Each structure stands twice: as structure tokens, then as C-alpha cells.
From TrEMBL:
It holds the Pfam family dnstrm_HI1420. InterPro entries: HI1420. It comes from the Bacteria. This is Putative addiction module antidote protein. It comes from Roseicella frigidaeris.
């Protein structure tokens, strides 16, 4: 009997605000634009991509493309998406001694 596998989708497990916030923290902490775009896309899917697109005033297909791992969302898109998630972008020192 063959083992049946299923593609892992982290969006299925981001079912509360705390888990979504931590997922985004890790995505942003990497500093990799692809990780950030993918993290935003995953959390948007967990919340509901249509809802995020509507509230942000963006087209859903364009938002999917923009927030894919290979996407390149503009800063305006990132700000709108975070705002609809009830979040905002902040800046902090990368190292404690650089304040």
C-alpha cells in the first residue's frame, strides 16, 4: 500500500492572531524579501485572501502574485496588507548595540 502524502500548508495552522503574528515575525526576521512576501501571503490566506484584498482595496489575483514567494510587493501593498491585518510596520535595531 502506497503512502498518501499531502502538501504542507502552514496557513491551515495559523488559526489565531498569536500564531499569525509569530509567523510574520519570523518571516520579517529573516530579512529575506522572498520570506517576507511568502509570510504575508500565507497569513493573508489564513485570514482569507478575498477579505484582505477587499479591505486593502487591491485585486485578489494581483495580491496573490505579489505575496507569492517569488513576488515583489511594493511598500504600499505591504503597508495596506498589514493594516488590514491590524498590524503596522515598525523599525528596531538589528543588533542591540546599534540604537
Amino acid at each position: 500500500m502506497a503512502i498518501e502524502t499531502k502538501t504542507f500548508d502552514p496557513a491551515e495552522y495559523l488559526d489565531d492572531e498569536e500564531s499569525r503574528l509569530e509567523y510574520l515575525r519570523q518571516s520579517f526576521a529573516s530579512g529575506d524579501p522572498a520570506d517576507i512576501a511568502e509570510g504575508l501571503g500565507t497569513v493573508a490566506r489564513a485570514i482569507g485572501m478575498s477579505r484582505i484584498a477587499n479591505e486593502a482595496g487591491l485585486a485578489r489575483p494581483a495580491l496573490y502574485r505579489s505575496l507569492a514567494e517569488e513576488g515583489n510587493p511594493s511598500l504600499a501593498t505591504v503597508a495596506k496588507v498589514l493594516s488590514t491585518m491590524g498590524l503596522r510596520l515598525t523599525v528596531e535595531p538589528a543588533r542591540p548595540d546599534t540604537a
